[in-house]
Design goal:
Number of strands: 26
Strand content: 25-35%
Number of helices: 6
Shape: globular
Distance between the termini: 37 Å
Helix content: 10-25%
Strand order of the largest sheet: 1-23-19-22-18-17-16-15
Largest sheet: 8 strands, mixed
Amino acid sequence: MAGMGARLVAFAAAVLAAATCAGAGVTSEYRRKLEATVDMPLDADVFRVPPGYNAPQQVHITLGDQTGTAMTVSWVTADELGSSTVKYGRSPDKLKRTAEGSHTLYEYFNYTSGFIHHCTLTNLQHGSKYYYAVGFGHTVRTFSFTTPPKPGPDAPFKFGLIGDLGQTFDSNSTLVHYEENGGDAVLFMGDLSYADNYPLHDNNRWDTWARFVERSVAYQPWIWTTGNHELDFEPDLGETTPFKPFTHRYPTPFRAAASTEPFWYSVKIASAHVVVLASYSAYGKYTPQWRWLQDELTKRVDRKVTPWLIVLMHSPWYNSNNYHYMEGETMRVQFEQWLVDAKVDLVLAGHVHSYERSRRFSNIDYNIVNGKATPRPNEHAPVYVTIGDGGNIEGIANNFSSPQPAYSAFREASFGHATLEIKNRTHAYFAWHRNHDGAKAVADAVWLTNRYWMPTADDA
């Protein structure tokens, strides 16, 4: 019997190895939980208003230019306007430099925002730690950040990858695990607060969400992508300006990227050129986004300086979940050939509340008459990752199609986050962490090889 058991184990191992060699995708049987996704209560400590009269709250930063020699600081004062001044420097005790910002506010149906301040700190040095203080005249709060290294082909950098976060207990678990894993900046794939899920698009939920994530985004830049939950377009409430709360609260460095709108732009961080696309802004032929992306990929990308070419969007192009299936198809048809021609390394999306990683496939052979509608292996194509699994109130998307399509390498209906560690011009380590695991345990991982410097190498 023992010999038979050993033979069975060996046979199973051989079957698994054969399946792996044959390129079979994995649909994980792991189930993160059975209970419903629940919002944290409004009196949770993560939503707490900081003490002190008119204390700055909801502090967050993002790049103020394309490379990180400028940083835009944003915050809200709730009691009165206060000051839009930021003092900053290399030591917390010597904030010798001063920048003057501006403020805005907005109304949304029956809600009026606090005073929203934006201030850009300039002439920063790459790879340097800075301290900054806000709230002068009332309650001063001090934070810090480290600028990214100067763009260069072998500049290492670690990104956190998060999408569709929301403000549930699972959202908090995602953020806790990301903080434990560590990262230098976050690439965020859209759907921030989910305020539009609440009655009358309750914009107070924009405030609670910003206080919740302050513990990370006040200390490192988050690069924002807009999702469908940022639209806040609701004619029944008299709200006909798309993206109103988002544009008042979350600036992007779009002008530095030669863009005409804050929803599509690019940044150059260390050895990565990151392109942000807008799934819910016009992208048809000759639209501003279409023209901008064409120029971006053909004129402004320099793979000798920033070899890693990464594209962010909200609605995925390759998704084998029945939730939001093929919603990204019109953008894929418009832009996929461009991304393949540019040898994009990685495309990151959200929207679908689960995790999925693709192989390098493309569907660029298809046109309306030839009938070649099946994606095929393409070593020049990106890896597509869907990571809309941050933990929001809408719950997990657990309805994968069957059989698993050939382009899908790994998929799992769980909440979590990912990290992308760029090591040098040729290799980067991608890892996905499900929330139930310890911070250092990964459920899916792959070594990515750069499409510019190693165009025919296999990912491992």
